[in-house]
Specification:
The chain is mostly beta strands and 340 residues long. The chain contains 4 helices and 22 strands.
Length: 340
């Protein structure tokens, strides 16, 4: 800790080149704090007179008649002339200072700091001393004292939330929700569409709440076809089930047929409601089951990439029966389908 004393004003200043007054210094109780004291006059460092004895003392504020709680008179000169400094390490671990801090093993009365009044004083032999202006020395209570016990290790997240050696009591719905929360229930399903018959459909896996289906169109389809069809069964789904569908490739013969997504009844050959039409590679939709019963299933349909092609005249008939062509203004639609 460097102290710069201006011999012209007898004040602590910021540095030899900065004469702003320093009115408060801070330290820590319990430490031996190295002090370096430099004296300057007119901004130039200089030594004290030969045989000078430098003393640092600090007392409790307002207690001028009391003994010092910190006292150091063993400063040694290091360097000479413009490099001269006086060095010592006053102890801030004294009985008098500890009494002010009430070091008594009672944590209820521990002050965070105490303010002392302090000064430097020097004299040659038995001559009259010269002292600095009094300044405040704030001593903070120490935190690490060397007698602390080792903290007890806290439970890890696994220890806290999982009772090892005990069977979990989550219900099936809770387990499913837990898997869904961390994305562990995602299922990737590759699907090839090659026919226009109801057998080309998504397989709903029992208990699987989240499926991702990537659809690949086959090279050849019925030459008279205007679309390919993919069926979404209305059975084996529960509210909250989510299905994402992405179009990976378009047909080549005929070229670029849209992929139409329908719900279908369990019986073969029975298509019901047309839900959406995917027309570009990469088009994706998400279907969320809102309600499900033996006769009615309600879906929320949301586009992941709302860039579907504008309806052409050739597909006007499809639009009339409810094909959804997404654009940036139509962000979601609620569709209710009924079984026959």
């Amino acid at each position: 800790m460097l102290f710069t004393i201006d011999l012209d004003t007898l004040e602590l200043i910021a540095s030899a080149s900065d004469r702003r007054r320093v009115s408060q210094v801070e330290g820590k109780r319990g430490d031996d704090t190295p002090f370096e004291v430099q004296f300057v006059r007119g901004g130039v460092a200089e030594e004290l007179a030969e045989s000078s004895v430098l003393t640092f003392g600090a007392k409790e504020e307002g207690e001028y008649d009391s003994d010092a709680v910190v006292l150091e008179d063993g400063f040694a000169l290091s360097g000479s002339g413009s490099t001269a400094k006086y060095i010592a390490s006053p102890s801030f671990n004294t009985e008098e200072l500890n009494a002010i801090f009430q070091i008594d093993a009672d944590p209820a009365n521990d002050p965070p700091f105490v303010d002392l009044m302090a000064e430097f004083s020097w004299a040659v032999g038995s001559g009259a001393p010269t002292s600095t202006r009094t300044f405040r020395f704030r001593v903070h209570n120490d935190v690490v004292r060397g007698d602390e016990g080792t903290p007890s290790a806290a439970a890890t997240p696994d220890d806290e939330w999982v009772a090892h050696g005990h069977a979990q009591t989550l219900t099936l719905a809770q387990k499913t929700q837990a898997l869904q929360n961390i994305g562990a229930d995602r299922k990737f399903v590759a699907k090839t569409v090659s026919e226009q018959v109801p057998t080309s459909s998504i397989n709903i896996l029992a208990g699987l709440r989240y499926q991702f289906v990537e659809v690949t169109s086959s090279a050849e389809v019925d030459p008279g076809a205007t679309s390919q069809k993919l069926g979404l069964p209305v059975t084996d789904v529960l509210p909250g089930d989510v299905i994402e569908i992405r179009l990976k490739t378009l047909s080549t013969t005929p070229a670029n047929l849209p992929l139409n997504l329908y719900t279908r009844n369990p019986g073969p050959g029975t298509w019901t409601t047309l839900l959406a039409s995917l027309r570009n590679v990469g088009d994706s939709i998400r279907l969320t089951c809102l309600t499900a019963s033996a006769s009615v299933t309600t879906w929320m349909i949301e586009p992941f990439l709302p860039r579907y092609a504008t309806l052409s005249a050739a597909n006007a008939a499809e639009a009339a029966i409810g094909v959804i062509f997404w654009d940036t203004t139509l962000l979601r639609q609620r569709v209710t389908t009924a079984t026959s």
